[in-house]
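Q: Given only this backbone (270 positions), what sequence would you predict?
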């Protein structure tokens, strides 16, 4: 770990450095850390924004989409001039303009069973900022098998859900053993989402990541935080470890992502 912060870094991160719980050691740990953000959309935008501002030294950003005009209602790292450009390029330029200490690793791919394990193993923490069930299950399985902490966030209309898995039990499949049947859960484009909501949920995910990297505080491991923006209320629901969980249970059926089923079962039928 490099503790030799230069004068500019001492200034840039001064509000961290004066905190007892961070200090120069904590800031150096953030600069040495690497985080993979899967999805540079509504949730990924605040995650990338705040992790870059906080000085997380290496940010991997995985997304195979291009920016669309309808994204700008919530995906605040992209602008009008970015419409039609790859989101990873737009996100990388946002980070470069905000904090030159941060190296962005662009992954302009959809994570798949073929690529996910190599990808997650290279990072200290993974953030699921995706918008679909196949990716959520794939990231859960890959991170659980590789023992990489995973932050999960999801948004729907006025409601957000967020939790953190740090290894062992429980995992996302303890909560949802498998993806819902096709058509049961509409996605953002069919159900809509309050534009600010992924900002709130993504900011919580970024908070969890920074705490994990600093080794400070208590994460949401074992708890699902449910946030209702309409009533401005939160509820924290315990996640029971499932003895028969196919990934982290007593006799796991999935010991490789090649064993999982990740077909897109959440799309709404025509
Ligand atoms: Zn599990």
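A: Predicted residues:
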């Amino acid at each position: 770990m490099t503790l030799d912060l230069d004068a500019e870094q001492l200034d840039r991160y001064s509000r961290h450095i004066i905190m007892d719980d961070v200090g120069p050691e904590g800031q150096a740990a953030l600069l040495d850390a690497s985080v993979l953000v899967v999805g540079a959309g509504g949730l990924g935008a605040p995650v990338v924004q705040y992790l870059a501002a906080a000085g997380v030294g290496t940010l991997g950003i995985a997304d195979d989409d291009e920016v669309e005009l309808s994204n700008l209602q919530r995906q605040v790292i992209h602008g009008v001039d970015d419409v039609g450009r790859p989101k990873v390029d737009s996100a990388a330029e946002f980070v470069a303009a905000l904090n030159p200490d941060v190296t962005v690793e662009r992954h302009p791919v959809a994570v798949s069973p073929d690529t996910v394990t190599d990808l997650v193993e290279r990072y200290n923490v993974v953030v699921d900022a995706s918008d679909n069930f196949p990716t959520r299950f794939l990231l859960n399985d890959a991170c659980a098998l590789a023992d990489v902490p995973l932050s999960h966030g999801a948004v729907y209309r006025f409601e957000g859900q967020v939790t953190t898995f740090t290894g062992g039990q429980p995992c996302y499949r303890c909560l949802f053993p498998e993806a819902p049947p096709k058509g049961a859960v509409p996605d953002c484009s069919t159900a809509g989402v309050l534009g600010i909501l992924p900002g709130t949920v993504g900011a919580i995910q970024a908070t969890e990541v920074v705490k994990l990297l600093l080794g400070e505080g208590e994460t949401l491991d074992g708890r699902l935080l449910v946030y209702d923006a309409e009533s401005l209320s939160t509820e924290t629901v315990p996640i029971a470890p499932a003895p028969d969980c196919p990934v982290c249970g007593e006799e796991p059926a999935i010991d490789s992502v090649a064993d999982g089923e990740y077909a897109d079962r959440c799309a709404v039928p025509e």
